[in-house]
Each structure stands twice: as structure tokens, then as C-alpha cells.
Design the sequence.
């Protein structure tokens, strides 16, 4: 579907449709700027990694994140079997990493980890070098809703670095957002 103009978008909303069409919803969501992360896992089911924006904090006691992963994504079943995941929040310079793990770089999933250096913390899930911060997590609970699984993940370790810019997805584009003075 082509890009919808704001006026068309408003007309569609004003037409009073009770059920919001998924394309209208996606167009609206493109205006919600969001940090970009790569959720990784390793264990019994092997390695996986997927670029995600659906990440947020649930509570700090106990430190818990939620991550929404499409049920059609290979990562979904791998994370469930492994029972662990790591949310690697990408730095502003990490656009190629986002492309690598969203599939848009065309690199097969089994090859993706050979293109980036990584280590581990407590759970064994890959911690990507260069991520602005990585949350190493144990899977606590899974809620299936619509097309996605909501993973509630308890944070068991954290590694950060001093990168000054994070990667944000807004208007279907990557933008580097920096704390450094202009
Ligand atoms: C900016 C961006 C954000 C994304 N956010 C999510 C997300 O929150 N959840 C999700 O399931 N997929 C998301 N995707 C799509 C996944 O990256 C893609 O489907 C994934 O790489 C599938 O790979 P897999 O089948 O190897 O797991 C996003 C893609 C992009 C480019």
C-alpha cells in the first residue's frame, strides 16, 4: 500500500468506521517514534535475533520488560523454547544492525550473527557489541494476543556503554537521536 496522506488518514477516521482498518492503524503507528532494539536468544532451540520496536518497561520491582513478537516470526518459537532473551537497544550508528535483523539486508537468519561481534551475560542470549544498553532476561510469562506474543521478561543482568545517540524509528525511517549539544 502506498503512503497515505494525512488528509486521507483524517477522512478515514472521520468516516466513523468502528473497526479500525489495519492499514490505517499502521499509518497512525508510523507517527509513534520508538527506540529500535534487537531481541536475541540462544539455548536449546539455537540462536535467533529480530529487530523490534515493541519494547517497554512494565515495572522496576522486579525489573521487567515486555516485548511483542509476531507469532509468524521464527524468533517467536525459538524464544519460547529457550526461555531467555536479551533486548539490545541500538545506538544511533547501528542502522545496518537494524537492517540485518529485520531481514531487509537479505542475510539468512543463520548467518546474521557472523556479521556482528557479540558476547553473553548470565542467560547466554547474545549481547550485541555496540548496543547502547542490553537487558539480559529470563522469560517470566507469555500472553498470546491477536497476531503477537507478549513476552514478560525479568531482567537478570544489564550492560551499557557510553554511546551518545540512540536509534529511533519514526515515519518509517531510522533517525539518530543524540544528547550531544548541537
Ligand atoms: C523498525 C522495525 C521494528 C520492528 N518491530 C517489530 C516488533 O516490535 N515485533 C515484531 O515481531 N517484529 C518487528 N519487526 C519485524 C521484524 O524485525 C522481522 O519480522 C523479523 O526480522 C523476523 O525475523 P525472524 O522470522 O527471523 O524472527 C520490526 C521491523 C522493523 C524494521
Sequence:
Amino acid at each position: 500500500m502506498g503512503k497515505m496522506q494525512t488528509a486521507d488518514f483524517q477522512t478515514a477516521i472521520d468516516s466513523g468506521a468502528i473497526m479500525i482498518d489495519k492499514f490505517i492503524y499502521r499509518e497512525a503507528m508510523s507517527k509513534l517514534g520508538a527506540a529500535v532494539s534487537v531481541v536475541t536468544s540462544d539455548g536449546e532451540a539455537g540462536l535467533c535475533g529480530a529487530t523490534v520496536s515493541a519494547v517497554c518497561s512494565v515495572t522496576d520491582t522486579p525489573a521487567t520488560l515486555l516485548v511483542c513478537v509476531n507469532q509468524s516470526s521464527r524468533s517467536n518459537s525459538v524464544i519460547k523454547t529457550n526461555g531467555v532473551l536479551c533486548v539490545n537497544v541500538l545506538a544511533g550508528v547501528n542502522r545496518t544492525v537494524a537492517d540485518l535483523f529485520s531481514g531487509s539486508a537479505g542475510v539468512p537468519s543463520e548467518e546474521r550473527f557472523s556479521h556482528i561481534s557479540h558476547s553473553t551475560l548470565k542467560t547466554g542470549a547474545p549481547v550485541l557489541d555496540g548496543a547502547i544498553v542490553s537487558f539480559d532476561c529470563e522469560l517470566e510469562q507469555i500472553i498470546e494476543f491477536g497476531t503477537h506474543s507478549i513476552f514478560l521478561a525479568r531482567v537478570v543482568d544489564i550492560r551499557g556503554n557510553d554511546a551518545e545517540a540512540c536509534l529511533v524509528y519514526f515515519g518509517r525511517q531510522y533517525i539518530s537521536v543524540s544528547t550531544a549539544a548541537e
Q: What stands out?
A: Residues 6-14 form the longest helix (9 residues).
